[in-house]
Amino acid sequence: PAACTMEAAPTTLADSLLDDLDDLSDVEEQPVEEDGVQDGGGDQKISSAAGTEGSDSVSAVGGGMSGAEEPMVNAGSAHVGTDTDALRPKRKRLLKVDSSLVAHLATIRAEAAAAKDEGDSKPSASASASTTQKEEDERYYHLIVASNKHLSRLRDELVRAHQDLCAAYHPKFPELEDLIADPLQFRSAVLAIGNEMDLTLVNDELNEVLTSNQILTVTVAGSTTAGRRLSDAEMDAVKDAAAYIEEVREAQADLTSFVAGRMEGLAPSVCALVGDTTAARLVALAGGLAELSRIPSCNLQVIGQVKQSSAARGGMSAAHGQPHSGVLMECDLVAKCPNYLQKKALKTVAAKLALAARCDYVNVESGRTRTADAGKKFRADIEAKIEKWEEPDKAQTVKALPNHDKQQEWSIIWVYGPGDDSIHKAQTIWQTSNILG
Fold first, then answer.
1. Using a CB cutoff of 8 Å and minimum separation of 24, what contacts does 39-48 make?
2. How far apart are the first and last CA of the chain?
3. Exposure check for the chain: N or C terminus, fewer CB within 10 A?
């Protein structure tokens, strides 16, 4: 009996282990089978059970598929939304939301229309009352300062409008924005090409806005482009962005013409020397014509200087400029000089500018007629100097030594005592040579 019990023990132990494993498998499969037999809400019970068990297993492991799949779905939906929103820019346009700029443009255009009707676009130089003339000059000065401020903002707005047009036309011709960098040329090329895939059909339109080299490059790039035709909505967005660029350009032209016309009446000598736009910027930065006339020439060279920051030195900023140079560096007299002469020309122009500003200020204060004679004279002098600087150095001419027959003995001052050999040496040094004799 003992042997029987010892032989049956291993069998009983193995059977018990197998029975335990079978029980575990039955427990795991039984809820699925029972839920599958249930009618009506079987799928709902399976999903709920799987969700609860899956959440427990995910929390136990430290991460699951459901947590990883959710961000992928969200990222995909966000990408689709971005493509849809790219048809039209969502940023606020400056000419649509800036009430001060809109009011200033209306004032400037009304002034231009009134001056055109009167047939005189400049302020009267000989006013009956000096106080009236000063008040008029003060009003024009404030308008010029505001125009300069808005012109600076419109330059930045033109860059942003160009970026909007590039984004709208990118699906059609993605290479075009790299081939044509100028915003106005890019706008004209976009309107000329339109939705046409064969660029050889629009060569006549492109000839009016691009050079022959640009047309050749654009045509070759268009034949191998990966772009596609735009839909009607996308094409409307392109035309809207192009029309806005034209609005910005017209606003810039109106402000620039107003500043140029009024500055010729306020400071004619300064305008004749450095130009209308540069003169307007200098007067605005100095705070008026009286303040500009008090600035010495050494400070006029750096007025309006853009100070370099760490971002500019690292190439991360668009604001850059040459050291010790300001607005006057953009004058045509300085800009047309070679690089090695620009510093020299800048100092000369600054010196003459200080004199021209004082001439204009004295004429304003004394009530005399304002003329550009001084500025024209200074400009002619500077142009003559620049031409002289650019002339090449004259070659040294080789001169023959004089003939001994025509030699002239140099008189030697008696500085030595009698009988000194140094006198003979001095005479030998100052005698002419007999080599060519």
1. none
2. 156
3. N
Structure tokens at 156: 């930045």
Specify the DSSP class assigned to residue 315: T
Joined together, the tokens standing for residue 137 give 């000059």
Query: Looking at the chain, how many residues does it have?
Result: 437
Full-model pTM = 0.56
Q: How far apart are CA 47 and CA 52, in angstroms?
A: 9
Going residue by residue through the chain, which has 437 residues, state the pLDDT in tens, using 9 for 90 and above.
444 444 444 456 667 766 766 665 554 444 444 444 344 444 443 344 444 444 443 333 344 433 333 333 333 333 333 344 445 556 788 888 889 999 999 999 888 888 777 655 444 444 444 457 677 777 877 888 788 788 878 888 999 999 999 999 999 999 998 888 888 999 999 999 999 998 889 988 999 988 888 899 899 998 898 899 999 999 999 999 999 999 999 998 898 888 877 888 788 999 999 988 888 888 877 877 888 899 999 999 888 876 654 444 444 333 445 667 788 888 889 988 888 999 999 999 999 999 999 999 898 788 788 888 999 999 999 999 999 998 888 877 777 666 555 445 444 444 445 555 655 565 555 555 555 44
Structure-token match 């910005």, residue found: 248
Q: Per-residue DSSP letters for 175-206?
A: THHHH---HHHHHHHHHHHTT-S-GGGGHHHH
Q: How far apart are CA 242 and CA 249, in angstroms?
A: 11
Virtual torsion, Cα 127, 132, 137, 139, nearest 10 deg: -140
Contact assessment for residue 188 and residue 197, using Cβ atoms and an 8 Å cutoff: no
| AA identity, residue 412 | I
